[in-house]
């Protein structure tokens, strides 16, 4: 039996790459082949090659062996070559079998776990099996310098024959052979739980390594070394002797692209992902920083002592002796930070699903849920069970407290909330059918020993068993939800009601179970929802159906005409106010033997007594002429029929759908579908179905209408009344009107009649504008000619007054052919219809065109045609009556604009049509989109609209610009909460170490680890110039040295309070609230910060008395060079003035002496009126505008006086 166990296929081993040695040997062969060619040449190159070989051999040597010993071992090793079919299989495994390279570590750990299980099983009958060590562990260590990854276990180990037979033959695994021998045992206690079955997992190591070295020691043999490069392998006795005691070490020499697997965090993540529930302890060689006490060396202690200088012998007091103080006892140790390496346990979380439920506390379940789901809240409900039958598995399922924010954005997509384990090894969470879509919110795990895996152990072989598991998971989940306590169930229903309703629609097999979970509002209670079971218990005697009505709100359905008689007679009605509710109920044929009745559709029965039937028959006979007139005359082609109503009490009439037609609520939902087809046959069929007009024979309007029709069936007033009643019934029944304009006109006509306003009464004409005053003489084109002037404001298309319209005599190129007859206006050789610049003035015509003559070129004009409607509000590409800015599908091709590359349907992709500057070159080909002479890659304003691009970008199109938007991509998560610099799953705002470099952010000058100090990356206004180089951090046009609010956050810098302690930063000794006083400005170095120092410059004079308050006065235009300098001067004066006021206020608060207070009160009186920055700019600019306006008026008046003189002369 012991010999049989020697067939252990232990692939939990150690790998090391000797690819460098092969390269070196090949290089030596090439040197020998080229000796003749190199005669007479320097041999320095060969020397260098030898050094390279030596370095490579040094890099791939085993611990405890030098290069010479490695060579000797390889020379004595038995060489083996893989068979041809095995070689082909090897390539298949490496290149095709595995989808994900990272699973190599899972395979090695699984193999190591197998080996540990074997030795543990053997030790039950052989006490000597553990003589070398009784430790059962797996250890992983990365050698970054040599790019080698070691995986070591204390398992059963392998003999020389095992290494040759098991590792040298693919798909002949020690585990498979071991299990076949155990299968011969009759006792169940002799069975063991082994993971590997195929014997190929070990070779997945070649996905990431060029060479593998396996060192193994079995109790029945000496320690041997197996080495392979995937082409061949060798086995040799280990010259180091027994270094392992027992077990196996696999050394992988990693490929260059796989060096990431040497990173400590990467290894930890992989172990936690795939193997955290393995039975045996898994350790990783990891580092941590610790504070340790170290003794201070004598040399170091004396190094800092200052050298004593000899005193001058000629000192005046030779006899004076100075007593020296005894030296204080100095510390003998000091604290230093050291990097300590040690083994760190990775799988401390044990698989609680393998334990009995009675032994597991709620705290343990909650902790397991948080670890599994990464949710910070505790679960709302849980179920732990073991399923037996066709497939046996253990499972724990949880219902979270809140619904994920993207539940329905990702509805129907693959979910990863259920994790599949096979024998406690994680296999996958990428399922399409493990749980139905409507239960995608359920979190949990499944662990089975029976599920067959494919060869790569990445996917399951038999989907039939998955369906069995799915069925049991769904049943257990619904049972768990059903058992939730009422108080918690209300919370559950608030979060997941839509999921359950979708389940009723989608899951036929569980529809009855799901129906028992449904809850709706009803007329029975104003606040509490009711289940269908509770409704049925309260049903009236002889009530055959469950009544419901659907609408947008409770208020709407309560006032619906359809529920009037039901509520009056005391029937309970369910109120369906969610969009999915009506779909849900329609999918339910019945509940507890009771059918559902939509009270907005035909088929409603309330009273089937003989007396009631006779009364209704009499009314139908009496009102038959009216109903026939409504159907065939007044409402022809609008209704299917007219009928006497059983459901109305206070409304005159209502529009009732057929049994299979749309109710008003359903029609509204269907028309609101974002992805509905423009011409959908099914939708057209349902929407075009005519409705039944039910009339209330007891209503006075119906009675009066009957009287009018009986008197005169052609009465136009009666017809108008019937149409208006039909349209109001349409609205009250929840449908939309087709002819809203006609409805408005009919209502207006009836209002005229009720107010005795004649139908032909005209609308009063608008008064004409007052004529121009007589004393103002109009300047004509003749006056323009007389004075050589050109006053376009008074032109009538003849500026020069020669009687020829200007557009008929314009000749741009002076060739004698007027432009309106000339094919080439600017004589540049390009015909006008092909010329972007017809008049040759250097300005593209597109920039000069002004359709409405308002002085604003079309490309800048938001209303080209001057009709008062912005162009972007009246464009309707597909002519469907819906402007493009409201239309989800501009070209009506059935593809939503958000997904349509050609939204206007002209056959040209949209991005190829954008031409910002109208120069005929589309933006995607144009180096200068706005034609401002600055290439786009250097231009901060590509479209030339005067607004920097970063200030008008709106990534999610929600109307809020990115620089003002807390959520640029509109996913419901604030942007700052999504930044994760090191990708460790912890967002930066919660991460103490953003770049994962081991240095806490508060001590790290480069917190995000991108190689650039953080202060050099701060760019408040996003203009590409970091703040430390930017003169205007917030891009508000005010230089920072004059700006009260440098960062543009709306809070003056002097009022900002970083730590929120109520003390502004400029007054706070500890602005960041870290307990360490900040260093504040101290001009005279007297130890008193400036803001508390009465004498900052240390000249002995109080600063407040010393300062002279500047006066804000209007600048003299003659002394200023430009308008900007005048504005800047005014702003500067204002800031200085305000700063002094604040300084004075601070001083008064700290030194409230009477004289000072009096002075300050006077200053406050002088500056009582607040001066606004905008007022200053306006006043300065206003002075210029006033001057210009005065000059224009003087010019016009002078011109009119001259005209009067000439005419009178």
In summary, what is this structure?
It is found in: Endoplasmic reticulum lumen. This protein has 1209 residues and is α+β, with helices and mostly antiparallel strands. It has 32 helices and 23 strands.
How are the SSEs ordered, and which strands pair?
Blueprint: H1 19-33, H2 44-59, H3 67-76, E1 78-81, H4 84-97, H5 103-123, E2 137-143, E3 148-153, H6 160-166, H7 174-183, E4 209-217, E5 224-228, E6 232-237, E7 247-254, H8 264-274, E8 281-295, H9 298-303, E9 333-345, H10 362-373, E10 381-387, E11 393-399, E12 418-422, E13 425-428, E14 443-448, H11 463-482, H12 486-506, H13 511-515, E15 519-522, E16 525-531, H14 532-538, E17 545-550, H15 554-558, H16 564-568, E18 574-576, H17 581-587, E19 590-591, E20 594-598, H18 610-622, H19 624-634, E21 639-644, E22 653-656, H20 664-671, H21 681-687, E23 691-695, H22 700-711, H23 716-732, H24 740-754, H25 781-787, H26 806-809, H27 845-848, H28 871-874, H29 1103-1106, H30 1123-1150, H31 1154-1166, H32 1173-1208
Parallel strand pairs: 2-8, 12-14, 17-18, 17-20, 21-23
Antiparallel strand pairs: 1-6, 2-3, 3-7, 4-5, 4-7, 5-6, 8-9, 10-11, 11-14, 12-13, 15-16, 15-18, 19-20, 22-23
